[in-house]
């Protein structure tokens, strides 16, 4: 990209509105917060940090995590997948923090058991096609995350549920997968496949026989039999699946639900965040704002990159080891200022496309965030006051706004 293109367009001088996640999670009217975003941007960590902040603000909160990093899981007391929330000890917190890891297969198995007779449930659970679907079908994790959210909400044990979303490539998968999955379970192909057993060979026309022979060739006869048996057993649950997907989807639209979109200060993640923000607004789903996670604000902004470079050259000319050291430090600062300027530029570009979306930046910690102390630092960055920062740069930004 040329230096010219790097320059922010005039419209982007618009300031992003600040995001008050602190007030949002403390508000008793807030019942569900969903953290979405592209893969690897910090959804799981942000969810856990927000949950910790909520417990410290007095809420009884449960965080539903999905595939948390091992050390983070351990520090939340999640040593094994048990598909139920566990209380996390947070000394001194007026509220309660509970955490769980989603067990996708167990969640699916539980739905099957809850909606069929024991014999039918057994037949489904033992079916190889079901086993593949419940543990690896793309979209199953998203569907089951929504399912679990619905269950947590229905149990009414928590006054706030914070939901992490699966590590999909696209943030939109979380919204799309449940529908795609129920369409699949209710799909034409599957209905055709099971037609002979259901409608007394009504559909067993030459066309269907040809179709099923082709499918059988592609998928293999055994798999086809597995699918047919699975679908026959699942037949009574069809309505169930679709209704549940729809009901949970509606839950996401209800007042009291908020989405937090997480992105890294990188073009791809912010582009993804942009699509997602558009989609939420098209669906009428409330957006709390955008978290730009792992930014690199410089320790001071008093010295510009250009001046630091110039000073480094001047100092280096003086010669001697301490001059070399000072020059190196100035160059590090110059590099840091340039990085921060790039990140700010990307954030500005987002804001110029979405001027109403509130923004909060979260600086990169020195290492991974894997314990309560690390989460607390992140929670402070997420929920602390916008203007009251050590560097004086508001938390909407990586660098202070240029005057004029
Ligand atoms: N502000 C931060 N500073 C330093 N490290 C961070 C920060 N935020 C997240 N991380 C680290 O980045 C890694 C990825 O974070 P996380 O697992 O939360 O991302 P994710 O969006 O949930 O990823 P996935 O899409 O794979 O689920 C983790 O190792 C986490 O500790
Ligand atoms: Mg994650």
TrEMBL record:
Domain of life per record: Bacteria
Region of interest called Disordered, as start-end residue ranges on this chain: 384-404
Low complexity composition-biased segments: 384-397
InterPro entries according to UniProt: ArsA/GET3_ATPase-like (IPR025723), ATPase_ArsA/GET3 (IPR016300), P-loop_NTPase (IPR027417)
Signal peptide (residue range): none
Pfam families attached to this UniProt entry: ArsA_ATPase
Residue span(s) of domain ArsA/GET3 Anion-transporting ATPase-like: 30-297
UniProt GO MF annotations: ATP binding; ATP hydrolysis activity
Record-given protein name: Anion-transporting ArsA/GET3 family ATPase
Species the sequence originates in: Blastococcus saxobsidens
């Amino acid at each position: 990209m040329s230096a010219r293109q790097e320059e922010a367009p005039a419209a982007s001088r618009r300031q992003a509105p600040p995001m008050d996640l602190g007030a949002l999670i403390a508000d008793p009217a807030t019942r569900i917060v969903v953290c979405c975003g592209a893969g690897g941007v910090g959804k799981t960590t942000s969810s856990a940090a927000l949950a910790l902040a909520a417990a410290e603000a007095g809420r009884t909160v449960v965080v539903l995590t999905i595939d948390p990093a091992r050390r983070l899981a351990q520090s939340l007391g999640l040593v094994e997948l048990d598909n139920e929330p566990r209380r996390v000890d947070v000394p001194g917190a007026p509220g309660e923090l509970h955490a769980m890891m989603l067990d996708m297969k167990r969640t699916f198995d539980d739905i099957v058991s809850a909606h069929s007779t024991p014999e039918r449930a057994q037949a489904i659970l033992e079916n190889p096609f079901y086993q593949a679907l419940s543990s690896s079908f793309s979209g199953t994790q998203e569907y089951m995350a929504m399912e679990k959210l619905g269950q947590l909400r229905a149990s009414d044990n928590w006054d706030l549920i914070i939901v992490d979303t699966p590590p999909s490539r696209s943030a939109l998968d979380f919204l799309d997968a449940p529908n795609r999955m129920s369409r699949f379970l209710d799909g034409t192909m599957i209905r055709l496949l099971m037609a002979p057993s259901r409608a007394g060979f009504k559909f067993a026309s030459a066309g269907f026989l040809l179709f099923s022979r082709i499918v059988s060739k592609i998928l293999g006869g055994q798999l086809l039999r597995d699918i047919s048996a699975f679908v026959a057993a699942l037949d009574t649950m069809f309505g169930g699946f679709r209704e549940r997907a729809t009901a949970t989807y509606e839950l996401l639209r209800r007042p009291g639900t908020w989405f937090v979109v997480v992105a890294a200060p990188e073009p791809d993640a912010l582009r993804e965040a942009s699509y997602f923000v558009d989609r939420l607004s098209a669906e009428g789903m409330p957006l709390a704002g955008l978290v730009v996670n792992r930014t690199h604000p410089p320790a001071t902004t008093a010295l510009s990159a250009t001046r630091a470079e110039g000073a480094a050259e001047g100092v280096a000319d003086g010669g001697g080891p301490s001059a070399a050291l000072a020059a190196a430090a100035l160059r590090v600062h110059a590099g840091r200022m340039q990085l921060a300027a790039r990140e700010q530029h990307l954030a500005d570009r987002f804001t110029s496309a979405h001027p109403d979306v509130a923004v909060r930046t979260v600086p990169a910690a020195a290492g991974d965030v894997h314990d309560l102390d690390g989460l607390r630092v992140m929670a402070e960055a997420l929920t602390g006051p916008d203007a009251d920062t050590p560097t004086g740069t508001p938390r909407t930004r990586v660098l202070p706004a240029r005057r004029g």
